[in-house]
Structure prediction request, 566 residues.
Amino acid sequence: MSTAPGPGLRPPEDRLDLAWITDKAVQVLMFIGGISAIIFILGIFAFIMREGLSFVFDRFDFLEFFASIRWAPTSNKNPTYGALALIVGTASVTGVAMLVAIPFSLGAAVYISEFASGKTRETLKVLVEMLAAIPSVVWGFIGLTIMNGLIIDLFDVPIGLNVLNAGIILGLMAAPIMTTIAEDALKAVPDRFREAAEAMGATKWQMIRQVIIPAARNGLVSAVLLGVGRGFGETMAVLMASGHAINIPDSVFDSVRALTATIAAELGETAVGSDHYGALFALGLFLFLVTFAINLTADLVVRGIRKQ
Amino acid sequence: MVASSISVRTQKLNLWYGTFQALFDVDLEIKQGIITSLIGPSGCGKSTLLRCMNRINERLGYVRTEGRVDIDGQNIYAEEIELAQLRKQVGMVFQRPNPLPISIRDNVLFGTRIHTPKADKLSKEQEEEVLEGALREVLLWDNVKDRLDDTATRLSLEEQQKLCIARLLPLKPSVILMDEPCSALDPKATEAVEELIWQMRGTYTIVLVTHNMAQARRASDECVFMLMGKMIEHTETADLFVTPKDSRTADYIEGRYG
Prediction:
């Protein structure tokens, strides 16, 4: 009598059946899908490095890039590559955007997570997700037409395409995704904490301020950071609403030009391999590093919450 | 002795979750200063009844309550009742220890802080006094006095549950509701918490929901047996377990169902 296999163990000769092959094939496919994100990121990074590095090594003047406001790559006699005005432009627009987006998005997240219930809540969540799906060129169009006129009329300034305009547009664009992430963070606070606070006689606001927000703090911080990252990287809407003028702004009514908008507007006009082309890639490299750092920080902050 | 005065009285208490009726005409009198346990099989309404006594049931939007619940002579379902005041007077301990995710110190002082108007804010010294008093009363002070600023959720479950009791005390509640306070604890921790509850007897009126008949038997003065949303029997614990009057009570405590 042959020895019967133990319960649950298949005899070895049966292993190579269809189910086994499918299982292995799916595993391999999932693995490829899983690591592809890493490969793509490294690929993009390598590509930008290759295009930008020769400029960085041969022509790059650290002082000029970060301290000069003269961005004149097409000058025949003396092309200069000062990115300070562009960096300040991006930063000022992002700053105004966050002033707009943080109260809106955190307020919306707290409302959806703690106050709204049933149908209201579901409707709001769907609406917020729909807002996140509006293409950025449409937002830029709104900035260029509606907001432009509105700012000119309201503040009596000569031009409405400026930091304020781009900041508001960008803030409204970033708010939905920030709301969604912030709401996830609030929802992740276990209900027993709410129950405990309510059973102690806390009012809704006392509970939100003293229990829910501190407990969700890391998630909320990362929502804000991702919003900042979004602001830094956004191109089309900023290009259309900011005025696209190289300028260190004195007030929110001045026009500026963003890093991203510069790349988008100029890359098509340059000769591949030229200094100008390389300089644009250096801008891209800088942007990539900044957004990468912001996103990494956001991720680390979220991980911090899980360790506690 | 004031043991004869009534602390919690329910009259014709009916409760619905949506269309499902969970309590039927419950008339109950709980004496002041003793431990009364509510027992009965799962789904009999004992937790629901307990959760009426501080109106925490109302967190679920679809609850409807009829009848009245008087605590210290005041109908808590009356319109002029403020929930914050009610919950200051009636504390609750939950099945799963639920200290807030803040420091041990802030947990104990949470109630005092939210119930004290800004103008009368306690000084640092007064707060320390309140803190030490409450933690001593639950026998936790010596264990945690060196780590008061640690996050409370890192304590052991036994310590967490004691902390959850301690944080009620600064508010000087008259009634403490306990919803299966030991069911998440191991036997040793259960013993410690039961001992604590027994020590608090006299100072507070304690209403204890339990699944564990042995616990009801050793840790309560009076016992209420419930079945299908109705109150079947309410007597002294010793009598209920030895000479139950109702045959359904007898069947339950002998383990014929439940």
Q: What stands out?
A: Chain B touches chain A at residues 54, 56, 59, 61, 83-88, 91-92, 94, 96, 98-102, 110-111, 114-115, 151, 153, 164, 167-168, 171 (CB under 8 Å).
